[in-house]
Amino acid sequence: MDIKPITVEELNKYIKNKIDGDEFLNNVYVKGEISNFKLHYTGHMYFTLKDEKSLVKCIMFKSYTGYLNFMPKDGMKVCILGSVSVFERDGVYQIYAKAMKQDGIGTLYEAYEKLKAKLEAEGLFDKEHKKKIPMFPKTIGVLTSSTGAVIRDIINVGVRRNPNVHIRLIPVPVQGPGAEKDIIQGIKEFNEKKLADVIILGRGGGSLEDLWPFNEEALAYAIYESEIPIISAVGHETDFTIADFVADLRAPTPSAAAELAVPNIEDVKYTISTYESRYKTSLKRKIQLMNLRYEKCMTRRVFKEPMQKVNEKYILIDNLVKKLNTNITDVLNKAKLNLSKNATRIDALSPMKIIARGYTISEKDGKIVKSAKEVNVGDLVELKYIDGNIKANVIEKNERK
Amino acid sequence: MKEDINFEDAMEKLEKIAEELESEDLSLDASVKKFEEGMELSKKCNEILQNAEKKITVLINGEEQNFSVNNEE
């Protein structure tokens, strides 16, 4: 027997040609579960398709991945359309996938969807039930692992926003079976002892399996029943867990959760100072307005020259007094004139004046004799002259009839 | 220091007082009163902010201890 050996290369090439020439293998439709999924930086996807008994290598080139409506992940059940070919260098055959769709979707995903629908129907996601995150919580409760980036991010962001914040951590496992039990216990502890004003429930991203504790029904109820508002920051922005739906607020990342829980103290101070300046401005304005009214009022004449009215009255009084004076002087002058007139007249009538002209006054017993009848012959009468008196006896009397 | 005044309520009240003060109908006397009330409230709010105490603690088995993050990744 003289058989000429062929090279490995020749063998692989031969097999490749055989397989490539096979109609059936040129167009296969295979179902299985993805594992070992790797997205290469070139954009090609490398993974293994497996079922209970077997596995086969698969590759999907970048030119096809753009048509996918989902991101393949380990554990995902898929159906692949492609061709089988041999990679000569390694001597392995693999499926060159051209299209892929999710097959019945993995059981975990199914369970997730089912639970989500159930809890939603029960009202656990209702907006009305969501509690308000306090504006200025003094203590931030955190439920996460005591190691790793999550707690560090929360502390960093929290302290940066408010240097006086109190962050209280109850360390809990955030993945693996039964992790939800510790998380539930943590929520209860915070609530029973009132150890926090708001709770952040956090963990970093991961596969559906990793995040599974956050999809447990019991945890959903614990979050729902918590008196303290809960902010969830589970997984990456694109991964939603049941916990995210039940939580009072969902943050895309743990840092964002800290931002939502801890107000920036400078902002709060600024807000307060804005109120203060608003108060000052409005009070100032009110006072200015009052001042304006006051000044307007004061420009009126009554206030500007308050003595004017009084002065006017004074003038009036003065005038009256003047008038009164004039009147009285008139009366007085008239009276004086009258008096002097009468005095002259009286003077002219004075008996002395008459006596001076040669007349005499005769008196009998001290009384002036005005008639001859008053005297009888023999009476003693006194005769008064301008320069003296004489006494005489009546000798004769002739009465005129 | 225990504060009986709730921060949310205080902030809400600050806003309300600002609106009242800005309204034209409030008399000067009432304005002064509101102003004083508001300033007092804002002082209290600032006190609440100042009086918080920085603490990073960890609660294990109901026991509280100081907590520091180890920087190992």
| Helical fraction of chain B | 40-55%
- The dominant shape of chain A is rod-shaped
Number of separate strands of chain A: 14
Q: Helicity range of the residues of chain A?
A: 40-55%
Q: Which percent band covers the strand fraction of chain A?
A: 15-25%
Round the Cα radius of gyration of chain A to an integer and report it. Answer: 67 Å
The domain tally of chain B reads 1
User: What's the rounded overall pLDDT mean of chain B?
Assistant: 81
Oligomer class: heterodimer
In the predicted model, the low-confidence regions of chain B spanning at least 5 consecutive residues are: none
The CATH class label of the largest domain in chain A is Alpha Beta
How is the secondary structure organized here?
The complex is a heterodimer of chains A (401) and B (73).
Chain A: H1 8-20, H2 23-26, E1 28-39, E2 45-50, E3 55-60, H3 62-65, E4 77-87, E5 92-102, H4 107-122, E6 139-144, H5 149-161, E7 166-171, H6 179-192, E8 198-203, H7 217-225, E9 230-234, H8 242-246, E10 249-250, H9 254-261, H10 265-298, H11 301-304, H12 308-349, H13 351-356, E11 361-364, E12 367-368, E13 380-385, E14 388-393
Chain B: H1 7-22, H2 28-51, E1 55-60, E2 63-66
Antiparallel strand pairs in B: 1-2
